[in-house]
Amino acid sequence: MAHFHIDYSANLEDIIDIAALCEAIRAYAETSQTFPTAGVRVRALRVDHYAMADGNPKHGFIDLSVRLRAGRPDAVKQEAMAEIFATLKEFTAPAMAGYSIALSAEMRDIDADLAPKFGNIRDHMEG
Hints:
Blueprint (H helix, E strand, L loop, with lengths): L1 E8 L8 H14 L8 E8 L12 E10 L4 H23 L4 E10 L10 H4 L3
Parallel strand pairs: 1-2, 3-4
Antiparallel strand pairs: 1-3
Helix pairs in contact: 1-2
């Protein structure tokens, strides 16, 4: 299980293709040995109300939060986080060449005892 949650400032809506960013993160996760494909969820939420840095409304941000079931070794999580962040940086590089954008990411473990889950996605996956 891995949930990728992207918060982004509304002023980036016309600058970055957020749907394509979600797909880039999903595609990375699918090729990674760290995240089981059936458990991958990528979603993005536009933040309409925010203030940052010196208050100039030209500044924008993308914050990527990754939640995953506990149990993976720290080295595996660190490598996965580095690769995910590299994917985010590569995707946003063209926009960052002309716009003021802050990128951040964080990975958190989910306690399986406190986070029940149920689904049948694996039953409907092709291949």
